[in-house]
């Protein structure tokens, strides 16, 4: 592909087939690993001054691990929003220290080894429940893998962790679909709709947090609302914004990793056999490969805090850089045969599907890894011949590598 014909800002680019996008980012890595792109107006979204696209693993690693040079507080997605809106939608991922470290310290109280060990039991329980329902409801008839397996599984775990009743799960799922599908017409596609839904989920979370502050129960919401760090407690407003981040990140990324992983295992039965026939030995590398392959979060943005350079390209203070994780996870200088799905691929160098280190590395990475492993173990034991039977319907987004629908069948 000719370099001067590339425009990854164009929404039409994100409707192109996967192989076209892969080829485009390969061209950028090879010919212009640090390249400037103008922003194109999206429906009712503000148009910014453009951004520098980083497409190499090394450069994304560098930007992620130098928060003093590339900050998050001015926005973590490409469009420019106010500081208040950034923090409202992004919570701590759209903050810099000291605000970031304060909130992350409070939140991390709910992700201690003790808390995660407690979660382990209902990760297994929810996997069994989801698979039970799929088998009972569909038998050997065709059904949607996303709606019946990949989506409800992490959502139910997050809801149980947070103390959300089962009757509210569908509403939570619908809200998260709108928030992450803002560019997809199936989910509303406008800034106004995004803000309306965000306010609804915020109000729900704020009420939940205030209820647990008054009457704590045995759930993550209670742990976080009652955690005190340096004499300070999370406010119900802060909890509301964090709740948006948690249910979105904790649901959507894991569900899309599982969906992409299942598709590849169907397309490559040798890799499926290699993993499923020696499950315990190959699970660690298989899970990392699924996340590398899926790259559920396509990009995050940072802003330069002073004049700097990357690969000799001058970047001025205040200019935006966008870290394309999908491209870093296909970097030919880092991964041998990057377009080959290999469940025994060496775990080093690290894939960047959970971020590339630094203070904003995904807090729930280990929980996500465990969820992926447990679900595929359940599929291996209960539905060993589950097959994807048709092409996925992909989310139209430059932010989430989402699969909206994907037909499957449990073969005898």
Explain what the structure shows.
With 412 residues, the protein is an alpha+beta fold. The protein has one domain: Orthogonal Bundle (Cytochrome p450), CATH 1.10.630.10. Helices cover 49% and strands 11% of the residues. The protein has 15 helices and 14 strands. The strands form five sheets. A five-stranded mixed sheet has the order 1-2-10-7-3. A hairpin with a 2-residue loop joins β8 and β9. The longest helix has 32 residues, at 236-267. It is globular, with a radius of gyration of 21 Å.
Give the helices and strands, then pairings.
Layout: H1 18-31, E1 34-37, E2 51-54, H2 57-64, E3 70-71, H3 83-90, H4 99-107, H5 113-138, E4 143-144, H6 145-150, H7 152-162, H8 169-180, H9 191-214, H10 220-225, E5 228-229, E6 232-233, H11 236-267, H12 269-276, H13 279-294, E7 299-304, E8 308-310, E9 313-315, E10 320-324, H14 325-328, H15 365-382, E11 386-388, E12 393-394, E13 403-405, E14 407-410
Parallel strand pairs: 2-10
Antiparallel strand pairs: 1-2, 3-7, 4-14, 5-6, 7-10, 8-9, 11-14, 12-13
Helix pairs in contact: 3-11, 5-7, 5-15, 7-11, 8-9, 8-11, 9-11, 11-12, 11-13, 11-15, 13-15
